[in-house]
Amino acid sequence: xxxxxxxxxxxEPEARVVEMMxxxxxxxxxxxxxxxxxxxxxxxxxxxxxxxxxxxTMDPPDLEGAELAEHxxxxxxxPVIVTARDLNVxxxxxxxxxxxREVLLKPxxxxxxxxxxxxxxxxxxxxxxxxRRHRQLRELTRRFVRERRQLNEKVELVCRDLVxxxxxxxxxxxxxxxxxxxxx
Length: 184
Known about the structure:
By secondary structure, the protein is α/β, with parallel strands linked by helices. It has a single domain, classed as Response regulator (Rossmann fold, 3-Layer(aba) Sandwich). The chain has five helices and five strands, in the order βαβαβαβαβα. Strands 2-1-3-4-5 form a five-stranded parallel β-sheet, sandwiched between helices. Strand 3, helix 3 and strand 4 form a beta-alpha-beta unit. The termini are far apart. The model has no long low-confidence stretch (mean pLDDT about 85).
């Protein structure tokens, strides 16, 4: 059996909602899903084993939802989707500023969650790809600069050798001219 394509952390205390989410996300993404009902557990789990996507409710029983979402967004840099029953504009802005990718209001269509998860995972994949290419470019640039320095050092040595050879040649020519004058 092969590895699941994605690892998703699901934080939701309502069993019925959890079942629907698991079914839809597993079917759509062939994902390994870790389900938790408590926010404090989620922080520990995410620190020990980061997931590709976090779907967290704003209603966990043991931790303020916004605080949980902020912590999750700050520790893993993975996309975080928040679900909530009631959310005012101020709370929504606070979540988005903290790094939450999207906020879904309950009840939401499962298809909406799946599409939001798809966009979040794709954006995260593109960010990772961009970061990988940036690292490659930085390494190529370092190598280019290092090789250019080495080449400059070699050119400088060759130039010194040429200047030295030219001086010796000029001195020899002058000595030969002096001898020729003395013989003449």
